[in-house]
């Protein structure tokens, strides 16, 4: 794999934690549960998501149904760079633990589903911040399909409509191996097939506390 994906800069005094996984695996629920658990312990937390709530992020969400391939990949990457250099940098500089619902792993999967080459995805995201901890959720296809079927359908969420396929789940495994093998960024994996994501919130929060203590030490 060519190209440097992550910048060498440290996130200190803050800590960047990313949470990725297929639609329906429980990312948003876990992010909220972890934030609540850490705040109860007195930690300063900033929760966010990608695409962001900024103008580019709102555009990426609004245009998901229409944009395809490299066009959408570039828009998502532009939003990520803007968020990393602005919102994330500010909160990390303030010493906060930043929890980000979706990060580069999601782009490696979703843009691959749109037939964008991995080298291109890496190139346009080059220079983003390296997470201090990468959390990955997984669940079997039947469980994800059942959870998504229970949601109010949103015709604009193209990737969610096509979720739970074996190719998507396989691409998450590929992205996980790429980040672990090529960029020395293994994930802590939680399987939510038989467990709701909120139920692993305390375990994930404990892991973050351990990593934060080691980082500060």
Describe it:
The longest helix is centred in the middle third of the chain and has 25 residues, at 69-93. This protein has helices at residues 27-40, 55-62, 69-93, 104-113, 118-124, 141-149, 158-161, 166-183, 201-216, and strands spanning 15-20, 45-49, 97-101, 133-138, 187-191. Helix 4 crosses helix 8 (166-183). It has a single domain (15-216), classed as P-loop containing nucleotide triphosphate hydrolases (Rossmann fold), CATH 3.40.50. The protein is α/β, with parallel strands linked by helices. 41% of the residues are buried.
List keywords for this structure.
Rossmann fold, alpha/beta, 217 residues, 9 helices
Helix/strand layout:
Layout: E1 15-20, H1 27-40, E2 45-49, H2 55-62, H3 69-93, E3 97-101, H4 104-113, H5 118-124, E4 133-138, H6 141-149, H7 158-161, H8 166-183, E5 187-191, H9 201-216
Parallel strand pairs: 1-3, 1-4, 2-3, 4-5
Helix pairs in contact: 1-9, 2-3, 4-8
Tally of domains: 1
- Biggest beta sheet summary: 5 strands, parallel
Neighbour order of strands in the largest sheet = 2-3-1-4-5
Principal-axes shape call:
globular
Under the CATH scheme, the architecture is: 3-Layer(aba) Sandwich
Residue ranges: pLDDT <50 for 5 or more in a row? Answer: none
Give the strand tally: 5
